[in-house]
Design brief:
mainly alpha, four-stranded mixed sheet, 65% helix
């Protein structure tokens, strides 16, 4: 690790992940979208063509002229964290980083050609060294995954929607795209939280940082377990009306709710996937070109199916019950059809009254198979 000249960074070794692919820490929904986009022929070229329309150059000049660029001479402790994060995640080119005056705690990674990282003074003043290290790792994770490109497009489309709001139906298509991008971006934030944990390698610091973003610099008044309990209560409380309100509340947001992020990160930190990465077993960047889009979508679909099945949210439970009931019904109908048309002579004999004992035996056997098949398929 790179030690701060001021001596206020804990002196401990952190594991490094040479050649790590962003697929190692990406959320399944985020990863499937990125794999598909990377496989599209000409996708990068198309986005480069957009660079003339997007305000990227303007943003770069704005931060260069009206913010403080992190370096050995300015915010040197942040510069050490940035280089350390890039070293741990093996990001060859260290992206420029700026501190901008804004009391609201925030950070972002934007840019088409080259990503730039921006953090606000509100965030720098709010977090301690280890909490800030997780945030810097979070933004470097965005850069490694290529999220900066899509974040820039999202910003552009959001601004465009506001500018053409006066045109009848003018924002319908753009709003649909923005809504889809926001759903993807919320999942990408969960991916970047994981990258921040890989960089900081201190789940307690990651939890503290999220708590401070939610409740301010009053850590002595907050408790991690109670904070995580809020996420559990948020997920399972209320009725179907609350479930709909949750959806409406999250739709305009680019980030998941803070308690949800903390809960998701805690679960991942305790997972086998995280432990395998820490043990040095992870996908490599050199293998990215061989990644199957189909497998990525299958994994994403499996994740959403698991989410519906295990969710405590009333609406998700209803969806799961309906899906399960449909599966049971399909299995039961399938079993009946197999018994009717596959029972053959045994069924006919039973219906016709011939060989009553044999027919009864066949009928019982068929019923047993049907029940078994129905349960299996359901």
């Amino acid at each position: 690790m790179t030690e701060n000249d001021q001596g206020n960074v804990p002196s401990r070794q952190r594991k490094r992940f040479p050649g790590i692919s962003s697929r190692a820490y990406e959320h399944p929904a985020d990863r499937s979208a990125l794999v598909a986009l990377r496989k599209l022929s000409g996708f990068d070229t198309a986005f480069k063509a957009l660079s003339g329309l997007l305000p990227e150059r303007s943003l770069r000049l704005l931060y260069l002229s009206d913010s403080v660029r992190v370096s050995d001479a300015q915010f040197s402790h942040l510069n050490d964290m940035l280089r350390d994060a890039c070293y741990i995640l093996d990001l060859e080119k260290v992206p420029p980083m700026y501190v901008t005056q804004d009391p609201k705690p925030n950070a972002m990674c934007i840019g088409l050609d080259e990503p730039i990282i921006v953090v606000t003074t509100g965030l720098v003043e709010l977090l301690d060294e280890e909490e800030m290290r997780a945030v810097v790792g979070h933004e470097v994770g965005h850069a490694l995954s290529g999220h900066a490109v899509y974040r820039t497009v999202l910003l552009f489309l959001t601004n465009l929607a506001l500018k053409i709001a006066w045109i009848p139906l003018g924002t319908v298509a753009i709003t649909a795209i923005v809504t889809a991008l926001r759903e993807w971006f919320r999942k990408s934030e969960l991916s970047a939280d994981r990258a921040g944990l890989l960089v900081g390698q201190d789940v307690r610091a990651s939890m503290r940082g999220l708590m401070k973003i939610a409740g301010g610099n009053h850590l002595h008044e907050m408790n991690v377990d109670a904070f995580l309990a809020q996420a559990d209560e948020y997920e399972k409380s209320g009725d179907l009306r609350d479930s709909v309100l949750k959806i409406l509340n999250v739709l305009p947001r680019s980030h998941p709710f803070t308690t949800v992020r903390a809960s998701e990160l805690k679960k991942w930190s305790e997972s086998r996937d995280f432990q395998r990465i820490m043990d040095g077993h992870y996908p490599k960047r050199s293998e990215d070109k061989d990644t199957s889009v189909t497998d990525s979508f299958r994994e994403s679909a499996g994740h959403y199916a698991d989410t519906v099945r295990t969710s405590k949210d009333p609406l998700m439970k209803l969806v799961g019950d309906i899906a399960g009931g449909a599966g049971d019904l399909a299995g039961d109908l399938g079993g009946r059809l197999r018994n009717r048309f596959g029972g053959g002579q045994g069924t006919q004999k039973a219906d016709g009254g011939d060989a009553k004992g044999a027919g009864g035996g066949a009928g019982n056997g068929s019923t047993g198979d049907g029940a078994g098949d129905g349960q299996s398929e359901g």
